[in-house]
UniProtKB/TrEMBL annotation:
The lineage of its organism: Eukaryota, Metazoa, Chordata, Craniata, Vertebrata. This is Metalloreductase STEAP4. One of its GO terms (biological process) is copper ion import. Its cofactor is heme b; FAD. It holds the Pfam family Ferric_reduct. It catalyses: 2 Cu(+) + NADP(+) + H(+) = 2 Cu(2+) + NADPH; 2 Fe(2+) + NADP(+) + H(+) = 2 Fe(3+) + NADPH. The gene is steap4. It comes from Betta splendens (Siamese fighting fish). GO terms for molecular function: cupric reductase (NADH) activity; ferric-chelate reductase (NADPH) activity; metal ion binding. It is found in: Endosome membrane. One of its GO terms (cellular component) is endosome membrane.
Length: 459
């Protein structure tokens, strides 16, 4: 049964003048926090309770009544009770007829019930206009007000008028409302608080997999091989040397994986000759987690920088330096200054520093509070153009670090290439593909496709 229009008629007991009364059914944590904010925003709050005489401390200025009396007193009723206790609302159907019922509930698990809480509520009270809202905010956010990261109230419901009424209240509390559609979208909204970093899952797994792989690879290559072939125990290298290889290697691979899906999507559009065909599901999912991939990659690069900073104070490094000096004194020889080495090391440090600076800029601009302050053009300039420049600089840093080592047979211990050579493959491939896309003829075709033009298909 579709309820008819929202009753805007007599507000409060006997239409008393003064601020608009809003009803909160339920006096738990969420009900109390919500009531407190509503009172501060200038509303009159009427609580509906099973035992109005003994329902514990409520915000100052709020009234408490029986469920039926409270429901009758307002046109907007917040249902702040657990779904398991909804059944009694069926008996309140006459008082709730035509009212806006705001369902703020959540579940402890996904798919616990056959239908969403809001749909169940609508079934129990068909004469009311159910709007699902506020469930993605914690009691704490409700009490303290919106913060930069948590400014939005997502809502859904079948009546546009009812949703407007709830959006008005949200606006008075300082939140923006995001309309998520009909009440059938309620399950999606109810699942939001149950998700644990959904967009981080894939990047975190990838980072853990790459870290484990390169750690084992380098452990075998750099530590175990030294022990088996030369009998030397260099296991202390695990703590700093190995970590300072694994972190930048993983960072560079993950940074290139941020830019690979965009390049692949461009080639796919070129191949299809249109932008109006959906990308495959896996490519969509990959593109959606680019921000998280990039932020994790930045975390790994920051670890590399921190590890690099402590190189001069390491016991092993200081010992080696003094041993070299002592042997030079003993043998009465002075090492000649190697200008090429000076150029090479200074260059890779400098390029690394520039790359890291841009990396930081990319990370900062991907934060919502910063990206919201940028226009789309500014955002895409930083994330795309400067992003590729960052990838180029970091890749160049690693090439410069490797220099001519790839020519030396000693670099291929146990016939395996060093880690940095392996990690150069993905960024080099991404940069080469990007270069292809920048060729004027390819760039022109892609621009035409992205402007919405379709390439004529041969018959
Ligand atoms: C290697 C410095 C930023 C990727 C190195 C090494 C140093 C260094 C000293 C040699 C480490 C060793 O001998 O074990 C710096 C400085 C940076 C910086 C000072 C900026 C402040 C970056 C960034 C990336 C990166 C942003 C990109 C992810 C690499 C890679 C290696 C490397 C892949 C080779 C690791 C290996 O030995 O296998 N860097 N770096 N670096 N760096 Fe950086």
């Amino acid at each position: 049964v579709k309820p008819e229009s929202v009753s805007l008629g007599p507000l409060g007991p006997a239409g008393a003048p003064g601020p608009e009364p809003l009803c909160v059914l339920g006096t738990g944590d969420l009900g109390r926090s919500l009531g407190q904010r509503l009172l501060r925003a200038g509303y009159r709050v009427v609580y509906g309770s099973r035992r109005p005489g003994s329902c514990g401390p409520l915000p100052e200025g709020a009234q408490v009544m029986s469920h039926a009396a409270a429901a009758q007193a307002a046109r907007l009723v917040f249902v702040c009770i657990h779904r398991e206790n909804y059944a009694f609302l069926e008996a309140l159907a006459p008082e709730l007829k035509g009212k806006v019922l705001v369902d703020v509930s959540n579940n402890l698990k996904k798919n616990l019930h056959p239908e969403a809480n809001a749909e169940y509520l609508q079934r129990l009270v068909p004469g009311a206009h159910v709007v699902k809202a506020f469930n993605t905010l914690s009691a704490w956010t409700l009490q303290t007000g919106p913060s930069d990261a948590n400014r939005q109230v997502h809502l859904c419901g079948d009546s546009a008028e009812a949703k407007d009424a709830v959006a008005d209240v949200a606006a008075k509390l300082g939140f923006g409302a995001v309309d998520r559609g009909a009440v059938s979208a309620a399950r999606e909204l109810e699942d939001v608080p149950l998700q644990l970093f959904p967009q981080w899952r894939l990047p975190l797994r990838l980072a853990a997999g790459l870290t484990a792989f390169f750690f084992l690879y380098l452990l075998l290559r750099d530590v175990v091989s030294k022990y088996t072939s030369e009998g030397k125990d260099v296991s202390f290298r695990i703590m700093v040397s190995l970590a300072n290889k694994v972190f930048p290697i993983v960072s560079l691979i993950m940074l290139s994986l941020c830019y690979l899906p965009g390049v692949m999507a461009a080639f796919l559009q070129l191949h299809r000759g249109t932008k109006y065909k959906r990308f495959p599901e896996w490519l969509d999912r990959w593109m959606l987690c680019r921000k998280q991939l990039g932020l994790l990659a930045l975390g790994f690069a920051s670890l590399h920088v921190l590890y690099t900073l402590i190189i001069p104070i390491r016991y092993y490094v200081r010992f080696r330096l003094s041993a070299i000096t002592v042997s030079e004194i003993r043998e009465n020889r002075t090492a000649a200054f190697d200008t090429t080495m000076a150029w090479r090391t200074d260059s890779y440090y400098a390029v690394g520093i520039l790359g890291f600076g841009l990396y930081l800029l990319l990370g900062i601009t991907s934060l919502p509070s910063v990206s919201n302050a940028l226009s789309w053009r500014e955002f895409s300039f930083i994330q795309s153009k400067l992003g590729f420049l960052t990838l180029l600089l970091c890749t160049f840093h690693t090439y410069l670090y490797g220099w001519d080592k790839f020519l030396r047979a000693s670099s291929y211990r146990w016939y395996t290439p060093p880690g940095y050579m392996l990690c150069l493959l993905p960024p080099s491939a991404v940069l080469a593909l990007k270069l292809l896309l920048l060729l004027p003829c390819v760039d022109r075709s892609l621009a035409r496709i992205r402007q919405g033009r379709e390439r004529a298909r041969p018959r």
